[in-house]
UniProtKB/TrEMBL annotation:
Residues 18-113 form the Glycosyltransferase 2-like domain. It comes from Flavobacterium nitrogenifigens. This is GT2 family glycosyltransferase. It comes from the Bacteria. InterPro entries: Glyco_trans_2-like, Nucleotide-diphossugar_trans.
Amino acid sequence: MIKLSVVFLTLTNSQELYNMTLKCLNSLRESESNIVFEIIAIESNKEYFQSNYKYPEFVNVIVPDSDFNFHKYLNIGIKESTGDYIALCNNDLIFHENWFSEILKVAEINNSILSFSPAGNSQYNSLDLFEIGYKVRTHIMGWCLVVNKKIFNKIGLLDETFDFYYADNDYAMTLKSKNIKHAIVFNSKVEHLEKRSTEKSEQDKKEFLHKYKIPLYLHKKEHEWVFNNEKSLSGFLKYHNKWGNPDWLYKKNKLADIFLKCNLGYFIRYFL
């Protein structure tokens, strides 16, 4: 029987958040009848074990000593996992029936695909079971990634430079640069209960902008949104310092897509 390790990032410091996570965990347990789940929660509340909030015994709760870092916390869960597959998940999800079984169907059809995302809330009118691609929020849903554990032999652990913003983008570029296929699976349904973030005031923006040396490519109208949030700006700069400025990266990605279509993905590592 297939074993799936599911790593959740949780913050349990209110009844509302506890209830949301518990609903998520219960929907996961009820979603599959022939899958063995190993459930791991990486908890951000340092006082969790002294609090009144306690998850069921089937949940392995880990409270790291370090401050929250999206990729670092996921890496802790990855190292703890013992499953054939590992799912990296937010705690604001609702898992539908057979969501993982649908991913396994695609994995069996094409064993060269090592990374997957469920279709989420979007409605797809495709006759295909899946679509291979690397676009964030189109193919790669950072709130639920399911990977064959063999993938970490190829990419290593996640880059902990990315503490939140642009973590999904870095993961996408890492897969593409190493010619590892990712697919969105249309019949796999997992709802994401997204919350809207708030923008900072103009004064707040001025207070953090002086910390950064702003590259010339950011002085364009299409990049104005980056300055709404310090963490967003920091993530944006980390991402483009690693993979190239937006204009150059766009050209490299176009070239990479041509190589992938021609089954020459091996050569992408030389220019990404």
